[in-house]
Specification:
Number of domains: 2
Helix content: 25-40%
Bound molecules: 1,4-dihydronicotinamide adenine dinucleotide, (2R,3S,4s,5R,6S)-2,3,4,5,6-pentahydroxycyclohexanone
Protein name: Inositol 2-dehydrogenase
Low-confidence stretches: none
Distance between the termini: 29 Å
Pfam family, one: GFO_IDH_MocA_C
Strand order of the largest sheet: 12-11-7-10-9-8-15
Number of helices: 10
Shape: globular
Enzyme class: oxidoreductase
Domain Gfo/Idh/MocA-like oxidoreductase C-terminal: 140-328
Order of helices and strands: EHEHEHEHEHEHEHEEEEEEEHHHE
Structural class: alpha/beta
Mean pLDDT: 97
CATH superfamily of the largest domain: Dihydrodipicolinate Reductase, domain 2
EC number: 1.1.1.18
CATH architecture of the largest domain: 2-Layer Sandwich
CATH class of the largest domain: Alpha Beta
Radius of gyration: 20 Å
């Protein structure tokens, strides 16, 4: 690849996120083009490839990685399939953007971490896109100035309209609260040391047997608390909000007051209905940052260590959900590669 050639991207998994990322790279991102896609569903892969000129469709991710013109990989298959594609990408030393979660459990996350360490350099950006959301970025910048003083508590709310049919009670933690695990670590610059999960009586609108909502409390090594209301069948909208409480003040994001209307004796606004709407700008910025860094020969953004740490927090959270009580998070020693 010459310095100015567009980055040739293989997109693995062409479901909801993968197809949206293909569209994004094709229409929004500069400096990249999709040259191959793979999906176990051949028809879906073909349909998505057909929307992009010069893109080959595969059912085997390894074949897509080996296709002509592939310089980098975007993984958007389900979490349990990530490890195999990550390891295949490492064999070709290809840069990767891997949708969250890095992998669904600690054992597989550690295998990926070990494999990247053996490679000897960072290759992966993990898709914790909230770090690229303008509101989260402003909150992070404010905290970095130190004006508010030491962070004491972070209150998070994470609401989805409805959960998909395959969603389990533990997925509220491993699939959804994974975002707050990362946001807490990133915003505070602390590691999470323990997790407690409280379970109110499930909403009558939750599917039978689903423990929804849940109230999760993280303790951090900086002495802060971060709580998360996770409610994936709230019915009315997609809401992600965060309020930081510090020694000298508070700051809050996610109220969605960009447009307030006054009409017919009422005032109000609209609520996003899903993540593609609420975080559209974050995804655009995330993919552009990945493409730009990759073309410079760099790897930036959330690392394999961040993906592993989130997996460790979520695994402790799932145990806390199942067993009750407070579960400590066990983290390996942080390798120098991720310092
Ligand atoms: N950052 C974010 O806000 C979000 C991230 N995600 C993540 O994106 C990833 C994909 O999620 P969705 O698009 O919602 O799922 P989806 O189910 O809509 O799409 C997954 C696609 O992967 C294909 N697939 C399954 N196994 C495969 C394999 N071994 N190789 C290649 N393709 C395979 C499926 O046929 C399907 O087309 C997941 O890791 C999920 O956690 C999902 C939603 C939001
Ligand atoms: O990552 C996501 C989904 O996988 C998850 O299931 C949702 O709860 C999150 O809001 C969304 O951002």
């Amino acid at each position: 690849m010459t310095e100015r050639a567009p980055l040739g991207v293989a997109v693995i998994g062409t479901g909801r996120m993968g197809a949206d990322h293909v569209r994004r790279i094709h229409e929004v991102t500069s400096g990249a083009r999709v040259v191959a896609v793979a999906d176990v569903d051949a028809e879906r892969a073909k349909a998505v490839a057909a929307r992009v000129g010069g893109c080959t469709a595969h059912t085997d991710p390894a074949a897509a990685l080996a296709a002509d013109g592939v310089d980098a990989v975007l993984i958007a298959s389900p979490g349990p399939a990530h490890e195999a594609t990550l390891l295949a990408a490492f064999e070709r030393d290809l840069p990767v953007l891997c949708e969250k979660p890095l992998t669904p459990d600690v054992a597989s996350a550690l295998r990926v971490l070990d494999a990247e360490l053996r490679l000897g350099h960072r290759r992966v950006q993990v898709g914790f896109m909230r770090r690229y959301d303008p509101e989260y970025a402003k909150l992070k910048a404010l905290l970095t100035t130190g004006q508010l003083g030491r962070p004491l508590m972070l209150h998070n709310r994470h609401r989805n309209v409805a959960s998909p049919p395959f969603f389990t009670s533990s997925m509220l933690i491993s699939d959804s609260v994974a975002h707050e695990a990362d946001a807490t670590r990133w915003l505070l610059g602390h590691e999470i040391t323990a997790v407690t999960v409280l379970r109110p009586t499930p909403s009558a609108n939750a599917p039978d047997g689903l423990r929804d909502p849940q109230f999760v409390v993280f303790e951090t090594d900086g002495g802060a608390l971060s709580d998360v209301e996770i409610f994936v069948n709230c019915g009315f909208g997609y809401q992600v909000q965060a309020e930081i409480v510090c020694e000298r003040g508070t700051a809050r994001i996610g109220d969605g007051h960009a447009l307030v209307t006054h009409m017919a004796g009422r005032w109000g606004g609209t609520i996003a209905q899903d993540w593609t709407e609420r975080f559209e700008t974050a995804y655009d910025r995330e993919i552009q940052a990945w493409v730009d860094a990759t073309r410079r020969g760099e790897v930036t953004g959330p690392s394999v260590w961040d993906g592993y740490a989130a997996a460790a927090v979520c695994e402790a959270g799932v145990r806390a959900l199942e067993d009750g009580g407070r579960i400590e998070v066990e983290l390996a020693e942080k390798p120098a590669l991720y310092a």
